[in-house]
Amino acid sequence: MRTLICALVAFVSTLFRSRLALQLENVALRHQLTVYQRTAHRPRINPGDRVLWSWLSRGWSGWRNALVIVQTETVIAWQRKRFRDHWAKLSKQGGPGRPSVSKDIRALIRTMSEANTGWGSPRIVGELRKLGIDVAKSTVEKYRVRPKKPPSPTWKAFLKNYVRDLVSIDFFVVPTVRFKVLFVLARISHQAA
Length: 193
Hints:
By secondary structure, the chain is mainly alpha-helical. The protein has 3 domains: 2-91, no CATH class; 104-143; 155-189, no CATH class. Helices cover 56% and strands 9% of the residues. The protein has 9 helices and 2 strands, in the order αααααααααββ. The chain has helices at residues 2-15, 19-38, 47-59, 63-66, 72-91, 103-115, 121-130, 137-143, 155-162; strands at residues 167-175, 181-189. The chain has a two-stranded antiparallel ribbon with strand order 1-2. Strand 1 and strand 2 form a beta hairpin. The relative contact order is 0.06.
């Protein structure tokens, strides 16, 4: 009796649905029956089945009600995986990074930077453009020869050289017993004994 009432309610609800929604539901249910018939114990989902359900979920609002074979979260996970795989495939095309610079151009950059020590990377890029060679500033910075600078002195050497010239000064206020204020300026000279 209960199944009869459920069937009657389902029939009445189909009267108010559009023809397209009924056809999509029919396709979805027939597909699930086909999957059940081709497998013995546990339904096995093929990549084509995943594509069909991903397509149905995008174009049909009632796909969740007709889905019996898997959970709706599974279909959403399939869509996300296809999206990730699609963009991963697009990003892997070609080699990673910028194309390499030929050995001749690298040698030219080194020669220009050695011959003209006052030129920076922007100037070398400009001169290369005049020759018809288009390279980025970061490429020139990577391959140019930098002049060797002497190491900077340490703090110990700085203090040793300038200790006679260093002076510490402090200014503070001292209140007295008679409620007067004294202004004190203290000067300390840092000379080695």
